[in-house]
């Protein structure tokens, strides 16, 4: 997963719910040095009895914000959505020579 173009990641999930698996796995795929590289990561764990849905909000360096419904998507689909925009930013950066 391409994370160098992410600036903010906000995740809210119930760790005991099987529908929150994609949210948990997404957090585990973020490299340990991400915070020191300037990424803002917020995670909120909901109580076991919570009926609130799991959410994932991602913000990119170009200002684009994505709200991803992680309850209905597998982790491969979530990664595909995030990587698609990251690859576009990488191409743009490469063409501009930055």
From TrEMBL:
<keyword id="KW-0496">Mitochondrion</keyword>
<dbReference type="GO" id="GO:0003735">
    <property type="term" value="F:structural constituent of ribosome"/>
</dbReference>
<dbReference type="InterPro" id="IPR042776">
    <property type="entry name" value="Ribosomal_mL53_fung"/>
</dbReference>
<comment type="similarity">
    <text>Belongs to the mitochondrion-specific ribosomal protein mL53 family.</text>
</comment>
<dbReference type="GO" id="GO:0005762">
    <property type="term" value="C:mitochondrial large ribosomal subunit"/>
</dbReference>
<protein>
    <recommendedName>
        <fullName>Large ribosomal subunit protein mL53</fullName>
    </recommendedName>
</protein>
<dbReference type="Pfam" id="PF10780">
    <property type="entry name" value="MRP_L53"/>
</dbReference>
<keyword id="KW-0687">Ribonucleoprotein</keyword>
<dbReference type="InterPro" id="IPR019716">
    <property type="entry name" value="Ribosomal_mL53"/>
</dbReference>
<keyword id="KW-0689">Ribosomal protein</keyword>
